[in-house]
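A common beginner's mistake is to predict each chain separately and then try to dock the pieces by hand. The better habit, illustrated here, is to supply every component at once so that their relative placement is modeled jointly.
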Amino acid sequence: MPADSVPMPGESIETPTVVAPPEKHVGVGGAMTGAVPWIDKAGVVGGVFRGIRSLFSGMGVTVGYLMRPSTVVTQEYPENRETLKLPDRFRAQLAFNHDDKGYHKCTMCRICEEACPNVSIIITGREKPAVSKKELDSFVWRLDSCTFCNTCVIVCPFGVLRFDGTFESSVYDRRLLSYTLNRYAGPVASVLEKMEDPEARKAAMDPRDPYSGAAVIAALIEKQKATKVSQRAAREAARAARIAAKAAAAAAPATPPEAKDVG
Amino acid sequence: MSWQVKSIAERTGDLLPGSPWTAVLYVLLTILAVTAFVTVAGLVLIYAERKIAAHFQCRVGPMRVGWHGVLQSIADAIKLLMKEDIVPRDADALLHILAPVLSFAGMLLVMIALPMSPTVQVSDMNIGVLYVTAVSGLGVLGILLGGWSSNNKWSLLGAMRAGAQIISYEVSATLALLVVVLFAGTLQLSGIVQSQETGWWIWRAHGCGIVAFAIFLIAGTAEINRTPFDLAEGESELTAGFHTEYSGLRFSFFFLSEFLNMFVLAAMASTLFFGGWMPLHIGHFAGFNGIMDLLPPGLWFTLKTTAMIFLIMWFRWTFPRLRVDQLMRLEWKILLPIGFVNLFVSAACVVTGFYFFAQ
Amino acid sequence: MSVHVSTLQARISGESTASSPLSTEEYFVNMGPQHPSTHGVLRLVLRLDGETVREVVPVLGYIHRGIEKMGEHGNYRQFVHLVDRMDYLSALANNWAVTMVVEKAAKMETTERIQAIRTLVCELQRIQSHLLWWGVFGMDLGGFTPFFYGLREREQICDIFEKTIGARLTMNYIQPGGVMFDIHPEFVKDVKAFISYLKPKLVEYDALVTDNVIIQERIRGIGKLSAERAIALGATGPVLRASGVAHDLRKSEPYGVYSQLDFDVPVGKDGDCWDRYWVRMEEMRQSVRMIEQLIDNIPEGKTFMVKPAAKIKVPAGVHYSHLETARGILGVLLVSDGKEAPYRIHCRTPNFNNLWCIGEMATGGRMGDLVAMLSSIDIVVPDIDR
Amino acid sequence: MDALNLIAAVQALQPDAKVREQTDQPTLIVPAHALVALARQLRDDPTLRFDLLETHTAVDWLDEDRFELLYLLASVPLGHHLTLSVSIDRDEPVVPTLCEVYPIAQWLEREVYDMFGILYDNHPDLRRLFLEDDWVGFPLRKDYEDDFMLERPE
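With all components supplied together, the output reads:
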């Protein structure tokens, strides 16, 4: 490309542009910015009148809304609870899809737990599975750390999870923000439905308190504390080894000449 | 017909004829009356501002306390009374405490000169206009002291802006007042009202009145630190300007005096240019004047003042703020020359008697 | 070698440069971290001479969350939702920037429908962002009412997003391989209703703010930035375009379906606050134009090309792609070592560079001008700090 | 200008520059001492005109014991891109500053100093950008350890 055809900044390549802010300057001829002494500026009277007119047109806009109370957009929240309808997809609280009988389909595959960006989902299994191989004990969801990214919902292969619009979730105790989503511990719906005896079904299921998540998290934290101590010890040992190795590497080239000198 | 002017002073005299306690009783009654009025008017104004602002902005404003939030101001007052009263550690404590009182006192003192109806006026001085101009200047002292004593750079900036602004605009406001004084031929506020018996000065003075009114309105808005001239507070620039460091009761003093100053401005504007409590009269057209007289003068005053207040609120909720140097240019390069020319023209009108219904 | 590491304290304890005997003592004042017009937790240390600004020293980091470090600890899909929290007013564009670099690096395919939906929601969000900016701009200049009008219209866009995306601010909608949901059945109808609602409002905005004499006097001729300086300071987006440089990635390196759309790039002349204001107002109109062209022509097709749970493997190397958000060029630099998590991920955010211009603009101006300039740059602080 | 021509043109200016593999933009590895001179040439050359430093960041290659500095240049009028890559020793991370060529580098380099501890020679105002002045360590280095850092439970 020849140098003289190079566009300058501003005249960039084949971009259709709308240039130039409108020239109609409604200011008072620079009288107030002080750029030009106001008497010298031609058309200052017209400028002043245009300026005043612009003020009135602005006042017209505001008074227009004052005169029309129908334009009020305020929603008075607790009063409009009845009519307030949030869209279906609104992400406010994670919930389990239980079928009509109250069964869920969670197989404890832990895909959602892995997909969760910040460990807001904690899944624990039962110690002694009664019926099937893997049985869900509690599916804990931490509202306090959830970012509502919806990833868990879309990755779930069985459609167990959904976000619903129950947005009034404020509580006075932070620990209450850890919910146990499953209503019972035990096998998945497919296993339960194969069981003919309703009593056996009931025996396989263990009711779960929605607010028992805090206990699960507390136990997890205790466990992590213990592992963290050992992890830190290992890390520090590795660090010391690294430093020692580096020191040795630094000392190594220095040693031979010394030896030479002695020799 | 002519209105009988009878102030509280005379009425107190009727109550206890010849007693030496008259003066004491008079002072007590005045304090009670003015304080009660100021409190009620302040609460009403704050509520009105919030509601009007809300509807300008497609909102509903306070709705929860009382019917449509009518008790909101009272709830706010209680809240402000109960708040912690903070004096910053390195502030000049005495001046910090004194500043809101001064500001409030300036506003209260103006209040006693306002003729709200022929019978409701605390003190009808023969130098009324001069008194109002002088005493309302006291408010700026409170603002300056408050900003300076807070030991905060934002407060200081706000106070300096306010000082420069109020003192500058006082000049224009006074020039506009002088126009009416010239036409009325008196400084007494009740006299000015009486002089408008054949029509308001805004239309009787061949445009001089309109120009003077416009200047007075602009300068007055600047004096009471409201948008578009709220540089002293300058919420988006100086956080809160001179009252950044004030809380609780002391803040409410500043707040209340700001709102009551708006009332004072509106009352002065309506007194000087719209006849105060004087009903709408057209010359010596007795039939029309008689119909207009059916409404009591107190109501006329209230209506005019309310309209003025609404206008000032309308400005505030429509316009953005000027910059500090533009503010000064507006005053010294635009308003002041116009004001002077206007004064000369009106003087010529008065000398030649060239205005409507000149006696 | 002269590497000297300084501190903030040393930086702001310089001597007064008062030159004439008339000039007063200069002083430092902290604007922020909590200040109404720094729009968040930005701190500007100002050296003032009376009302005149002599120097601006931005102090950043009050909302630094280490998003780049967090990105190294999760996989690519998990990084997408983090960038929502950078420039929260163009969360969708942020999503798209990450998605774009991941798709480009991992050679994932998309359909026309996906690209059209992405373009559509991003343009809607550009309007949304500019509306909020317009309101805040009015408020920073002291007029309170524009703020409510701007938010009122923005609310409608948020409602549209709520229906389709399920969130109002932090969307996490545009994902590597598609978009999280197909558009809501009522989306087209809602957008059309909104567009016809917005058009008269834009005229009203002109009456209330654009033509207002006080606004014009306040923002004309202040905060000037020449084209050369704007580029040298790394400004992008409306700030650069207001200086007269028609640099818009939607035109120069079209992504999405921008190449099929007919729109103009608004360009200013002097690079002052007024030009920046005007460019943004015009951009809203151009976005309306784009949406009108697109809304009836969303092609059919799939909206998610891969299984959401599928792992994304990005070949080792350095990958970079950028796009135009409401504030300028957002680039995502991805350094991969072939594993599931990025080795290093860096976001080139528009606000970071745009804020850098404030030092040059504001010097010599007044306090009130500084607020107008800061507002005309349209900063979003979390985007600066990341 | 397309990638091949671009690389040829830059290599004509700086013969030491080598092409970096595994990138999706034309990327050249440049020795640290030649960086400033090359950047100035790139900016001023009328056929190249890289007037915009789009971003600058570093990568910590812990295993190879080096920092890789990436300078992403773009040309606003000509619309092409180029990345410069500079490798420096991890133990002595000093590199000349680009502040004089691209003013924006002042902040970008401060960020990189803040996060990686890379020292910029002749930088006019080198101090931390995001973190406090008394922060210990450089968070984006791969060997940065922080007891408060959240870890994913296994």
